[in-house]
Hints:
Layout: E1 10-12, E2 15-17, E3 24-28, H1 36-49, E4 53-57, H2 61-73, E5 78-81, H3 89-92, E6 98-101, H4 103-106, H5 115-128, E7 132-138, H6 144-149, H7 154-171, E8 177-182, H8 186-199, E9 205-207, H9 217-230, E10 237-239, H10 251-264, E11 280-283, H11 294-305, E12 315-319, H12 325-328, E13 334-338, E14 342-347, E15 350-356, H13 360-375
Helix pairs in contact: 1-2, 5-7, 7-8, 8-9, 9-10
Amino acid sequence: MLPPRRTRRIQxxxxxxxxxxxxxxxxxxxxxTRDLEATLHQVRLLEDAGADLIRIAVxxxxxxxxxxxxxxxxxxxxxxxxxxxxxxxxxxxxxxQKIRYNPGHLHHHEKDKPTAEKVAWLADVARGENCxxxxxxxxxxxxxxxxxxxxxxxxxxxxxxxxDHCHMLDAAGFSNYVVSIKDSxxxxxxxxxxxxxxxxPDVPLHLGVTEAGMPPDGIIKTRIAFEQLLARGxxxxxxxxxxxxxxxxxQEITVGRELLADIEAGRFRSVPVGFFDGxxxxxxxxxxxxxxxxxxxxxxxxxxxxxxxAEHQLTIAVMGCRVNGPxxxxxxxxxxxxxxxxxxxxxGKESVGSFTYDAVLDVLLRELDQxxxxxx
Length: 376
């Protein structure tokens, strides 16, 4: 049995989250939302897999138009990811049950307007359409003010951001919200969510390890975080983020259900000795921000081609979009973030250059070998 959760209960359309409600399993459509046929196909795949919630990204008027048709075609509650276009919330809210915004993206627009004012506006929009909100804090896209405030404690930076945004929504008289605090390292996910819950035990939590990568490693990383958090009574809804082909997106739901069943039955799995030693490849899940499906194939090629470096303590990040890619590759030794036609290669925070999908692997391997030689 999982321990009881102390969070308040919130409403996402017909679905209840928090408190004693069942833990909801969700996933995200991996296609560009404006591609209506492809996105509807993704929604059906996730419905067939048993998703409780389905997240869709909206970043343009074309996406909004497609969303209206998607909402009519499904009875599963929809969550919209606002990306960097928070002003679209007003047009989106009548068609969905929850809106996710990233605090790290709010500062990009209307910079002369206080963040609290933007958050209050989102709360008014959500309240008017009976929508829930999700404060989605990602370690790779934290607002600069929090990095400046906590330069020596990256976990406190993201936790502090989440707390502040909860306070802003509380001040706006809005309580129908959930928080997610994610990182690609499950150990940081555990620490950040535990630390947040100590100060705000009332707030429902969405669990996830972002950019967990390809199975089986991606499943292992996710299991590590979920076992530790759910066993402490933390987590009201969850997503397993895997880098898999579009047609296999339902695997995220299947794995989520399997992990929940194992943890609830007490079937915990120890982490193999040395799991975090050696080469670490992180890769974001395929989502609607991906502008070239070749990203998934590239991630798999990187894993195969770098097998010779398995014993070296290095991190390679393979990111599928220009929204999170630049920031979320900064902490990797080598990072690739993919655009529509080219892949941007980085060494730490420095750019190596932009290369075609066919050429970038050779350049990556040269950079990897140079790194290994320099450390030797």
